[in-house]
Amino acid sequence: MLNQNQIPLLDALKANAARPHAPFYTPGHKQGEGISQPLADLLGKAVFCADLTELTDLDNLFAPQGVIQEAQQLAAEAFGASQTWFLVNGSTCGIEAAILATCGTGDKIILPRNVHSSAIAGLILSGAIPIFLNPEYDPVLDIAHSITPNALESALQQHPDTKAVLIVYPTYYGVCGDLRAIANITHQHNIPLLVDEAHGAHFAFHPQLPTPALAAGADLTVQSIHKVLGAMTQASMLHIQGNRIDSDRISKALQLLQSTSPSYILLASLDAARQQMALHGKMLMSRTLELAEEARSKITQIPGLSVLSPPSQGGLGGSPGFVALDKTRLSVTVSNLGLTGFEAEEILDEKFSVTAEFASLQHLTFIISLGNTQADIEQLVQSFTILAKEYRRTKLSVKNYIWQDFVGTLSTNLHLSPREAFFAVSETLPVTQTSDRICAEIVCPYPPGIPVLMPGEVITKPALDYLQQIQAMGGFISGCNDTSFKTLKVVKI
Hints:
With 493 residues, the protein is an alpha+beta fold. Helix content is 38%, strand content 14%.
């Protein structure tokens, strides 16, 4: 057992930041002496004193032998991994590295259609061929959950040459599929299971949370420590266990994807967040779960509102695609108030200073974490109470475009690999003229950053209709060159 009280990287950074010396190395502001005064006024001097480069005492992210190596070893033990890498380019680079380390050009990888755009980037970089599975879909709530074990087994039977499986666990709504069964099936075929666990970094620290991906049998998992724990934005981790994945390939892939000038402030925040959770994680998560349960209980009692609940509490789950829910994730259905999620998001933000994580057609989703307070919950509940009384309209009629109408065509409509389409000669056309053409760019409503169209897919009218409806109702489109979504790049014929 390692001493989880230690914070080797943070301690080394603190010592070097305080050491009197004449700095003749990057960064150019030289510990804040040359920084812009307005920026210094906002952030203070201390943060710039700690903005250092790869000094001897601070180790090297790409060849760690000192404090970074020690910090990563402590993190591996705390999160239940055999080896951990710190990421300064977010979980995005971790997902990309996972695909690069397990798949080459022409290799097949099975993944759900509701993957994050970083997985599509991994396909483009690697040249891998996606075998998409439709996630289980709840037509009442218009929410896609996880892929099912049966769907995975069928896909592996049809594609026995598959090199890896990647799943999302949990989804952006906090829904978890049957990861143990999925891991067992994947391993029966002797291939690795990769998990996008960006929103599940806290699972290892409380028994009332879903099973962590590694404990459920994943070979590799990527976690955004900054999303739900105490690290700074962009600070994430990649963990592996077992022998199905070559750790050297992970290291080499990350050298391609991460900055050669990593922020030590981000790295130190990972070290500090790990120590915080290793020492106090259960207490912090107990308090977070109490706050989340209070919010869930009180909002459920407000007429016109409902909350996504775990199967054990009589929710709409209990299916193979929904076996558990992260109860710190709060998704509130507002459509019975006659409002879209986008409208409700705007009202809560502008009128009540309550800001959601993201909105969808019928829902608002909130992340309740160790940083939230009792006052936050009271403000959230009060804002929904007033929203339901003063902003209610006739019941909203929303057509469920997102999965019900077109997801089935997306998974079977790949005419080029994402890499081939991305690098193909393209042309830009009005969106109205792109139906049945091959898409040449990623198009997704954001958040949550799940692509509706991607390079290599044939563009369908339902997909275009859905994107235009999202935009008309207050959402916005990202990933493509024209974010107004008046034009779209397609492969030139």
